[in-house]
Write a structure and sequence with these properties.
The complex is a heterodimer of chains A (137) and B (413).
Chain A (H helix, E strand, L loop, with lengths): L9 H10 L6 H14 L9 H5 L2 H4 L4 H8 L4 H9 L7 H12 L9 H12 L5 H7 L1
Helix pairs in contact in A: 1-6
Chain B lengths: L5 H16 L6 H11 L3 H11 L25 H5 L2 H12 L21 H41 L5 H21 L2 E6 L9 E5 L5 H9 L3 E5 L3 H14 L2 E3 L6 H14 L6 E3 L10 E4 L10 E9 L15 H9 L4 E7 L11 H16 L2 E6 L10 H20 L1
Helix pairs in contact in B: 6-7, 7-8, 7-9
The chains are: A mainly alpha (137), B alpha/beta (413).
Chain lengths: 137, 413
Amino acid sequence: MGNASSMLTQYDIEEVQEHCSYLFSQQEIVSLYERFCQLDRSAKGFVAEDEFLSIPEYSTNPLSQRLLRMVDGLNFKEFVSFLSTFSARASLQQKIEFIFKVYDIDGKGKVSFKDLVEVLRDLTGSSMSEKQREVLI
Amino acid sequence: RCTSDPRHHQFAGRTTTHCAQSHPLPHRQAFLGVIAVAVAPAGVGRWEEMASSLDAPNLDDYLTADSLPQEPPRSLTLRDLLDISPVLTEAAGAIVDDSFTRCFKSNSPEPWNWNIYLFPLWCLGVVIRYGLLFPLRFLTLILGWMAFFTAFFPVRFLMNGKNRLKSKIERKLVEMMCSVFVASWTGVIKYHGPRPSSRPYQVFVANHTSMIDFIILEQMTAFAVIMQKHPGWVGFIQKTILESVGCIWFNRNDLKDREVVGRKLRDHVQHPDNNPLLIFPEGTCVNNQYTVMFKKGAFELGCAVCPIAIKYNKIFVDAFWNSKKQSFTMHLVRLMTSWAVVCDVWFLEPQYLREGETAIEFTERVRDMIAARAGLKKVPWDGYLKHNRPSPKHTEEKQRMFAESVLRRLEEN
């Protein structure tokens, strides 16, 4: 793959940093860029769904499909912005908004009972019946 | 968009009140404890490893204030169900860095600090390597091949039957050819330990970095090996030459093949005339810094297992063959245009299945030995995940554990 950081200029790094509201340090952005290039094997500029799923740890995660819909096809700037929610420096508000977006996958602006059941279904799979889930919630 | 919705505030409000009541800062060990329940065993070690590497973002930073450890038993609240942050954090962690892709990362060489003295020296080095060494080596290789074929084909096709002499000559010729190969990349190989002896009821296992592992070992003793059939000139060599030392073919993608191959392996080790069998239980090439899980097929043959550890010195060349990025020909060219291939080969003590030990435990024990000797880190992933998705069983296992914990706490209310 070569020396990835040499392909990013200082302007690029600062632009990305600004886009993610300075939640990552410049060194972290360089590491993330290396990782992005590693995942994006055909150098398309974004990471495709099957490239995410080729990470075994990711594809065994129960919420991988939901997250895929949010993260598929993002370019590097948006990728960093997506991950910035997970930084310790991100505000609680931001994290809660993110969790909300994961629940409200079709972007209605509201989390319905159906959404809650669906997420619970992702988390429990076949180990819980539909009735049990509805009763639970 | 969502902030104006009163229901969202309610959603947010509920979470924040709970936060205020719980611990202000997550204790790292307790957090890892929570994750360890919900995650495959790989999870715990990896977090620590990643947090300690200076370049990668510190994983501790990914702990959200929400994902606090809860002591069991407690009454099940809606919050516990809704708080998916540990799962999300884990997914994001996998996106940022994961222990599987690390095994297949070719380390790009660090660029030197150039200055007026070093740069011309390096240029001179390039000229010598490509202009002088490469042609010489290539010539050696061609001459070696020609000598080999002129001796080999007559023996193979004209001498009849499977008599001892024929096998012996073929073996010596193959060993000689491998030595030529090794010379063509100026291999400096140090063998430690007793030379493998040719007797029945033993199988050799080694870690796998590139197809040249086979050539390096074959130079010392003619092993019979189990291999995947390759296309191109490699396939041609496999068919004509390796048949003579007794190789077993298999097809990675064919499931039924496994039984057939298992039987062939068992037959092979029992026959005293056959060459000693060499197996690479990882099933795929790994970058010589990690080892992936060993397949237990080699350890269930009911005979002695002799581990071999191979470690390449990266200063001279990175011998990892990234089969997705380069063809074998390009890989060989890269080796032939570097200064040398330096490696250590350790022949370790033969191991036997102990009383009350399962095949998997035996496999892991041998893997520990090889990893310790060659200084490799162990990774609990199956090498075939390079080509296939993990089976849904792992996800189902996680789902099951989560469902069970939830249902259990519901019953306790």
